[in-house]
Design a protein that fits this description.
- This protein has 103 residues and is mostly helical.
- It is 72% helix and 0% strand.
- It is built from six helices and no strands.
- α2 (39-48) packs across α3.
- The longest helix has 25 residues, at 2-26.
């Protein structure tokens, strides 16, 4: 059974690498419209982008990241305060909960 699991993992890695190569080839000029300075900020901006425009997300994250630029500060932020900051992105209660959980 262990050999099968190893083979499955190897096949999955090979498939993932093939997909990444195809995406790089087909979308070589793709750019992200979200403004961010770190992987954590990109994650938060992506969470906020659900059912929201990138323009609105960039307005909200400019203020959010100015005060809370990293995972530690976002995790320490009270959820009610986070909800207030991100309210204009819609679905703010779920987004705030998911941001806190991710951070």
């Amino acid at each position: 059974m262990v050999a099968s699991d190893t083979a499955d993992k190897k096949a999955a890695k090979q498939h993932a690498a093939k997909v990444v190569r195809a995406l790089k080839r087909d979308y070589a000029d793709a750019e992200c419209a979200l403004v961010y300075d770190s992987p954590v900020q990109l994650l938060v901006a992506t969470i906020l982008s659900a059912q929201c425009t990138d323009e609105r997300v960039n307005i909200v994250t400019k203020k959010l990241f100015a005060k809370y630029p990293d995972a530690e500060s976002l995790a320490a932020l009270p959820v009610k305060r986070l909800e207030k900051i991100i309210e204009s992105t819609g679905f703010f209660r779920n987004k705030a909960k998911n941001i806190k959980a991710a951070c």
